[in-house]
Amino acid sequence: MKNITLYLYLLFFTSFQVFSQTKFISWNIENFGKSKSETTLTSIAKTIQDYDIAAIQEVVAGYGGAQAVAKLASILNEKGTKWDYVISNPTSGNSYKKERYAFLWKTSKVKLKSDPWLEKKYHLEIDREPYFATFEINKKTITFVNFHAITKSKQPETEIKYFKFLPEEYPNLNLVFTGDFNCPESHTVFNPLKKIGYASVFQKQKTTLKQKCKAGNCLASEFDNIFYKSNTLKYINSGTVLFYTNYNSLQEARKISDHIPIWFEFSLN
């Protein structure tokens, strides 16, 4: 009897541990809109279907962007798990390309809390202002801040420097910054976030594709990352998805994106 009780306890504890873990994926999918065929969208769906929440950057602001996200969600739903999604309005900056952001999530694992929003306070200082979405996981909340910085040549650190003010602006939210920063985490612009307890999921991890692989090396720059408050959630695992290995050439893979997805598994404290 004692053995049965112990077995049931361990089974319950293990099940709870698995259930309490959340897998998050972030991907800058280049020019995500009408240029993506259904075959391409199906390939993207296969890449993200094993995760619970997905953040996408570089959704086309004009016609085709929102439709591509909706079609991606439809393909994911055909795989037997219910997914929902939200899409931002176009970003407001005028000096660079307007874009949208998107989140998709498994409704059985997470719940969207309130309406997501584009950050307006620094919309003049940040060209493509970040998109906030708060999710409830096991009665605890987490807010992902989805971001795509201006290109390296335009000095993305001039935008990222304002991120240090966001935790103070939203003191009641557990903010996690994610996306394409066009800047390595080793840059000093991230030091203020690190000083208040933020950690980067990746260090020295290249996430963009080269034009051509050289000696088996196909990755170019350390641009994509995730920054989280280390006392609010527990890091479990992380990695990248080398989706380009499924294609005959890098040129073929780059039709999907010039970035690889990054992922992060965690539980909330």
Tally the helices.
7
Helix content: 10-25%
Largest sheet composition: 6 strands, mixed
* Biggest sheet, spatial arrangement of strands: 3-4-2-1-14-13
Unreliable segments of 5+ consecutive residues: 13-18
The succession of helices and strands, N to C, reads: HEHEHEEEEEHHEHEEEEEHE
* Rg over CA atoms: 19 Å
User: What is the typical, i.e. mean, pLDDT?
Assistant: 93
Please provide the count of β strands.
14
Beta-strand content = 35-45%
- The structure class reads alpha+beta
Cα end-to-end separation: 34 Å
Structural notes for this entry:
With 269 residues, the protein is of the alpha+beta class. Helices cover 22% and strands 35% of the residues. It contains seven helices and 14 strands. It has helices spanning 2-20, 38-48, 65-77, 157-160, 166-169, 191-195, 250-253; strands spanning 22-32, 53-60, 83-87, 99-106, 111-118, 131-137, 140-148, 175-180, 198-200, 209-214, 217-219, 224-229, 233-240, 262-268. The chain has a six-stranded mixed beta sheet, covered by helices on one side. A six-stranded mixed beta sheet has the order 5-6-7-8-12-9. It starts with a helix and ends with a strand. Mean pLDDT is 93; it is low at 13-18.
Can you describe this structure in just a few lines?
With 269 residues, the protein is α+β, with helices and mostly antiparallel strands. It has helices at 2-20, 38-48, 65-77, 157-160, 166-169, 191-195, 250-253, and strands at 22-32, 53-60, 83-87, 99-106, 111-118, 131-137, 140-148, 175-180, 198-200, 209-214, 217-219, 224-229, 233-240, 262-268.
